[in-house]
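Lab notebook, bench 4. Still working through the backlog of constructs that have no structural model yet. Next entry is a single chain of 161 residues. Request: give me the structure tokens for it.
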Amino acid sequence: MLIAFAIRYFIIQPFVVDGDSMLPNFINNEYLIAEKISYDFKPPSRGDVVIFRYPKNPGIIYIKRVIGLPGETVEMKDGKVYIAESTDSQPEELSESYVPATTKTYVYSESEKNQEYKVALKDNEYFVMGDNREHSSDSREWGILPRANIIGRVWITVTPL
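Model written out:
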């Protein structure tokens, strides 16, 4: 029993996808296993799908994809995402094989679809987005994700019957 407790709380943890923000790659009610130990040895990488505590209410758990890393600048322009790896470098368009080719990425405010957006990430700050860009509450809406809020990385998925 003690071993099962240790595994559940320190190594892996089950989650259920709640909503459509990660379509088409993760579906509502899909079961996930997150592994929690690898980020103790290396930081999250771009493209990782992470489970985390919502920064505005840590009691709520979210799943999103890591887009921007500490020290980078994330920019959205003309429906595309650009990453500058440092303040001195030119932004390059992010290659996103996990979203449909027709996907356009914008930042939404209450009144309009913003065509341009730019944010510089500091140490231990990440920019995350859902794969279903038009139906995702993510860093475009509520800001950066602190490293301390990340629980783990999606390791295994089990599609419901």
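Notes after review: The first strand starts at residue 12 and ends at 16. The chain has a mean pLDDT of 88. Flag for follow-up if needed.
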